[in-house]
Amino acid sequence: MHPSRHAKQTPNKAAIIMASSGSVTTYRELEERSNQLAHWFRKQGLKAGDAIALFLENHPRFFEICWAAQRSGLYYTAISSRLGVDELSYIVNNCKARVLISSKALLQTCLAAMDQIQPDRGVYLLDIEQDIDIAPTIHALEARWAMEPTNPIEDESSGYDMLYSSGTTGRPKGVRVPLTGEPIDTVKPLVPLSQKMYRMDESTIYLSPAPLYHAAPLRFNMTVMRLGGTCVIMEQFDAEQYLSYVERYQITHTQLVPTMFVRMLKLPEASRKKHRLDSLNVAIHAAAPCPIAVKQAMIDWWGPILYEYYAGTEGNGLTMVNSEEWLQHPGTVGKAVLGVVKIVGDDGTLMPKGEAGTVYFADGPSFEYFDDPGKTAESRHPAGWSTLGDIGYLDDDDYLYLTDRKAFMIISGGVNIYPQEAENILILHPEVLDVAVFGVPDEEFGEAVKAVVQLREPKHASPELAETLIEFCRSKLSAIKCPRSIDFEAELPRHPTGKLYKRLLRDRYWQAHAQRKSLAAQLSAG
Question: Rounded to an integer, what distance in angstroms lies between the CA atom of residue 105 and that of residue 82?
């Protein structure tokens, strides 16, 4: 299955629709443009096994580039358009991209990165008509692209994405799988899985509200195109706009993250009831833990059409659960459908049912972090199992429940505290739009529980509201697991895919503590 087949069978069908503008790319156009770019890649000397990088917003040309790389046997690395110069440069250099493709909207970041990035074939921008005079290594792409033939290149073979973890606990890590030279229409595992679990086919109209550089939106959109469906791409997420697009485009399938659920649930009731959603058959979610009350509210609103999975960019295992199963096992992320879940204690031994430990997958696909044997080794158990670094437990029916990231666990007075518990409660308060809970330095207990909250109305921030939120948490959870203090921020550093850059918040408090201790030591010595 491949878009090239649909270009022959249904050439005028929409493959891609940009949600806000309504601009359409047909399967014929997708085929022709991806062929042209594949020819251009070959003219640049790129051969099977080489790499390119995309540094793009949700752009109309995004998937044309991906399919061009896929049919050219190239690795293609999609990079977050929100990254700064240092992170962009690190990924471009680490993935060994020979070409970087970006856009006029991101020109300033590209210019600032030119001294650090090393693509030997240059940087090419969309949306500009001529090369950039002030930067001789930055070129206009589309004029070059349009000059190439629309027939396939002679040496087509399957390329694959090489994606990076979101870096929520450290530097992003690249995952690169070996290329086999297989035909471009070789069926990928996600295709039959999506057909079976989500009933996707050529009639699917898939609304994608998340950034395309993330693994799930990238791979699911490409799966829909392999099946001959239509992808509707939101340029950026807005809760009420999302609901309007479901009605406008008669969306059948979609994929979201829990923060999107929260924002929709906190819309005024009139806004939530304004749009018809009866075309929607499947709503997939993943990427971050979903509080039980939030998911229950979504099922009450949309019906039992929610499907959850747990997996990572690494592809080492997969659990899945539908709404009916979840209602019988509230809070679960499902049973393993790829690999076997193993729960492991700190001493490396298996934990009994119901007891938390590090989540490993056995008998699943292997992976390595590119050029980082140390990180690869850290992800492995002596038995050969692999982990993404999450903590969880299995119930008696082998359903998996995630407790938190291992890196985020708080140890206060010798007690292990998982901040996700407090986060799941605080997010339910009507004043709270987003929340992060983590450990901060404490002279008596080692760490104390801290919450940083983003309010729906920032002007309501006050010491009194902080105390109210602490008491709200204590009314539903043991006091030791609740924040001892709360700070307010205008916006939390959350990845658009739903993952929270908690380390950025946490590091701020630990660094300030270290500076205070250093200053105190200097004053004492003086």
Answer: 11
